[in-house]
Amino acid sequence: MARFEEGRSISCPPLFEGEAYSQWINAMKYFILAQDFELWDIIEEGYIKAPKKKKKQMSENDTKAKLNSRAMHILLCGLNEEVSKKVSTCKRAKEIWEELERLYGKEEKKDGVPSCAKLLQSSKVDGVLALDEPEVSSNSCYSNSYSFDELQDAFDELYLEFETMNSNFKKMISKLEVENDFLLKTKLDFENQNGILKNDLEISKSNNDVLEKENLDLKVKLESLTKEKEIISYNSSCRIMAKCSHCHYHGHSLHTCPIKKRKSYRIRQVWVPKGTRDIEVNVNGSKAIWIP
Predict the structure, then answer these.
(1) Cα separation of 6 and 8, whole Å?
(2) CA distance to 52, 67, 166, 176, 181, per residue, from 170 (Å)
(3) Distance between CA atoms of 141 and 148, rounded to whole angstroms?
(4) Alpha carbon of residue 19 to chain centroid
(5) Could you please report the per-residue DSSP string of 27-60?
(6) Contact 15, 74 (CB under 8 A)
(7) How does 216-250 read in b/e, with b if 16+ C-beta sit within 10 Å?
(8) How many CB atoms are closer than 10 A to CB 184?
């Protein structure tokens, strides 16, 4: 009877020592699928942290992180020391898989053997739907000085800052819109009040002109009345105080007596003895009778 040698353990992944890359990727693929289908999804789709907003997203990030660490552990256990050093800077299981394709898949492509990228781009792999992956540059693990985790954390922080700033800006915009509406209303009210005050000012100006004219007229009348009053008061005072010595009437003096002006009086004469004065006298006697 023929003897069969002992095969590999089903609990240990196949070991890759730098040769027979196409055989190793097939064996490793089926080993990972046997462990968990979600592990193969993590290798195909990659692991990207979602922004930590809700509890559901945080739990999804935790489960994806655990699957990614498991997939990386399986892949690193299937590499020898020399090959594992070449992919030691990779932080994702997908990065390790793509780096191995870049390093060892070129020789397989020359021989016409299907590479790891072709397996990832196939529509179905043993009943599991595979998603098309975008092209990745050959130096995906070494092109940046920052690791993928650091970039992801920085992206999460920036995204949270952006969300907080966006919400704050929205609140500020809403407040400014309310204030703008209030200011527009107050502006319209002030414009209406300004128009009313302008009309009142024009009316008051016209009334002021009329009042000024009336004031001037009253001043002229007052001046004329004051002059008349002065004349009347002067005349009345003269009439009361003055008394004519000729006719004995009040209101005029001797020089302005109208009676004296109208009548011509003779010279007053009296009887005196003869020889007392050297003035010619009427010898025959007076023809007029003296009366007081």
Answers:
(1) 7
(2) 21, 39, 6, 10, 17
(3) 9
(4) 69
(5) HHHHHHHHH-HHHHHHHHH---PPP--SHHHHHH
(6) no
(7) eeeeeeeeeeeeeeeeeeeeeeeeeeeebeeeeee
(8) 10
To 10 degrees, what angle do helices 37-45 and 21-35 make? Answer: 130
Largest CA distance in the chain: 226
Nearest to 26 by CA among 40, 36, 47: 40
* pLDDT band at residue 159 under the 50/70/90 scheme: confident
How confident is residue 108, by pLDDT bands cut at 50, 70 and 90? low
State residue 177's pLDDT score: 93
Residue 142 phi/psi, 5-degree rounding, is: -120, 0
Structure tokens belonging to residue 89: 């800077």
- The tokens describing 171, both together, are 């609140």
- Which residue, 34, 4, 39, 31, is CA-closest to 15? 31
Place of tokens 């003779």: 266
Mean per-residue pLDDT for 140-152? 63
Q: List the beta bridge partners of residue 150.
A: none
41: Cβ–Cβ under 8 A, 6 or more apart, which residues?
67, 128
Distance, CA of 179 to CA of 198 (rounded, Å): 28
Identity at 70, one-letter amino acid code: R
Q: Do 269 and 286 touch, CB atoms closer than 8 A?
A: yes
CA 228 centroid distance within chain: 73
Q: Give CA–CA dist 182/178, Å, rounded.
A: 6
Show the tokens assigned to 128.
Answer: 């599991």
**CA 116, chain centre distance (Å):** 58
Model confidence at 187, pLDDT cuts 50, 70, 90, reads very high
